[in-house]
Amino acid sequence: MHATVSAARGQSKKRQVRWESFFDLLTRWSFLMPTILVLTVTLAYPIFYTIEISFAEFDMSSFGAGEWVGWSNYREVIGDYRFWESLKVTLVYLAIALPLQITLGFAIAFLINAEWWGRGITRALFIIPMVVAPVVAGGMWRMILDPLWGLMNYALQSIGIGPLDWFGDPDLAMAAIIIIDTWRWTPFIVLIATAALLALPKDIFDAAKIDGAGCWSTLWSVALPLLVPIITATFVIRWLGAVKMFDIVLAATYGGPGKATNVVNLFIYEEAFRSLRFAESSAMAVIVLVLTMVLTGIFLRGSRKLEERF
Amino acid sequence: MTSIASPILKRRSGRLGHKVRIAAGVIVSLIFLFPIYWMVLTSLKQPVDIFTTPPTFFFEPTIATYVEYFRRADISRRLINTIIVAAGSGVLSIIVGSMAGYALARVRIRGATTMGLLILLSRGVPPIALAVPMFLVARKLGLTDKHITLILAYCTFLIPYVMWLMRSFFISLPRELEESAMIDGCSRYGAFLKIIVPISLPGLLSTLIFSMILAWEELLFALVLTNRYASTIPVAIAGIAGDTINGANWGALTAVGTITVVPVVIFALLVQKWLIRGLADGATKG
């Protein structure tokens, strides 16, 4: 009798322990649960829905995915030269803007890191362009670059250049987009780079100086290898932002002239919400999604390799 | 002779180089600020002063454009909408996201790292891939043109952002803090709310402000998911900038642009120290 009581007591204790550990597990997961819940509804579900529509015929009456049509939307989109054009435009923008912004960002960071009483203020000033809404930046620069009344052409003409038709010439329009984007995003890189440059160990540079290393060789063989991790990280962050390019183009050129600055996001937006071709635009969105993921993976891999080499 | 002179010369040239560097830095920062200055200046001009060659720098300032646009119901309503949406999505994502960040930083859960990486990966999802299905679903459920729809849509990029910033922040805190609290009988939630949150308040606040700025500026989802009642300021600016039929309305563009930018700049400068730190951390540890 006594034995059974203690056994029962032991069992209940075991049960209690088990319940407690279950409760503990529940509490642990409850920290993550709200995020999982919200992102499942707002992020995961839409992605799957996009994939579903991209394989279906769009049913206008029910305003949703209709009959399954397999790869036909994809075939149509891949055969559409306008989609390729927009991808090409995006690629040109990325290939010029990203290296430009990162080089410029680190160069400016070096300049404003000079020690003097106004250093903190100068650095804080760089926050201001960074928080200007991209759509405002696009509109504002559209005014500055206006061929007729704009300040830029006035300034350029006073030194004998122009007048330049910023939004009429395809190449100049692309240049305008890159200028605006660079103005908006370089400050972001400047702020990261100033912190990174200040974190560099000073004694290494002193040692390099004592060893008689010149400016360039110090930069090339001492500073750069130390900066590689932060440069690659900045590149990846900036890349993730730049592939979403939409607001500035919409406000400044709306893809024009012709399709010269029609980045892929704007093209998909137009196809979906102006032409109401939801199935085709979903297929394009999925292609862009896959491309972005693959390239991001490659960049992350490459940056790790690059870090190992230095 | 030269051997004595050269160090002095070098130091002098170094000092000159230093001055040139400071001057160049100041000039570059002024160049970056100039477009904003020009926008604010233009917003205070009368139409006669806007369209001039050469551009005018000195004129009689007027706030006529502001008065006109604030009277227009749609700008003030958009302003209120933008505030509601920015505050709502900011607060929701700071609560949800910082809990997740804490879970990834401190609470040992099997599978949490994978989940975290998956959420991080979502930063690569182009918003247009979400905008299309969100529009269709919202339409079907009768949720278009509502604040809550926009708030939830903004969570898709704000929660991952908050989660990763706060994760790196929580990792930098000493582990003993909540361990001792939990030994003293605090529950896990007690330790989080009573110890971790108060200590992280500056970090949480600056992340909140930065999240609200991101929501404040968002265009694509606002364009797609709202049309009249819940529409935001960026949509108005896109409309004004894109309205080329009536000719460029620079007065409106710059006035509404200034209204959009000024509060954000004030907030950003208030938390600039934390903002810069957050950026640096986000780049190195994110």
UniProtKB/TrEMBL annotation, chain B:
<keyword id="KW-1003">Cell membrane</keyword>
<feature type="transmembrane region" description="Helical">
    <location>
        <begin position="191"/>
        <end position="216"/>
    </location>
</feature>
<dbReference type="GO" id="GO:0005886">
    <property type="term" value="C:plasma membrane"/>
</dbReference>
<feature type="transmembrane region" description="Helical">
    <location>
        <begin position="117"/>
        <end position="136"/>
    </location>
</feature>
<dbReference type="InterPro" id="IPR035906">
    <property type="entry name" value="MetI-like_sf"/>
</dbReference>
<feature type="transmembrane region" description="Helical">
    <location>
        <begin position="20"/>
        <end position="40"/>
    </location>
</feature>
<dbReference type="GO" id="GO:0055085">
    <property type="term" value="P:transmembrane transport"/>
</dbReference>
<comment type="similarity">
    <text>Belongs to the binding-protein-dependent transport system permease family.</text>
</comment>
<dbReference type="InterPro" id="IPR000515">
    <property type="entry name" value="MetI-like"/>
</dbReference>
<keyword id="KW-0762">Sugar transport</keyword>
<keyword id="KW-1133">Transmembrane helix</keyword>
<keyword id="KW-0812">Transmembrane</keyword>
<feature type="domain" description="ABC transmembrane type-1">
    <location>
        <begin position="79"/>
        <end position="271"/>
    </location>
</feature>
<dbReference type="InterPro" id="IPR050901">
    <property type="entry name" value="BP-dep_ABC_trans_perm"/>
</dbReference>
<dbReference type="Pfam" id="PF00528">
    <property type="entry name" value="BPD_transp_1"/>
</dbReference>
<feature type="transmembrane region" description="Helical">
    <location>
        <begin position="79"/>
        <end position="105"/>
    </location>
</feature>
<keyword id="KW-0472">Membrane</keyword>
<feature type="transmembrane region" description="Helical">
    <location>
        <begin position="148"/>
        <end position="170"/>
    </location>
</feature>
<feature type="transmembrane region" description="Helical">
    <location>
        <begin position="250"/>
        <end position="271"/>
    </location>
</feature>
<keyword id="KW-0813">Transport</keyword>
<protein>
    <submittedName>
        <fullName>Multiple sugar transport system permease protein</fullName>
    </submittedName>
</protein>
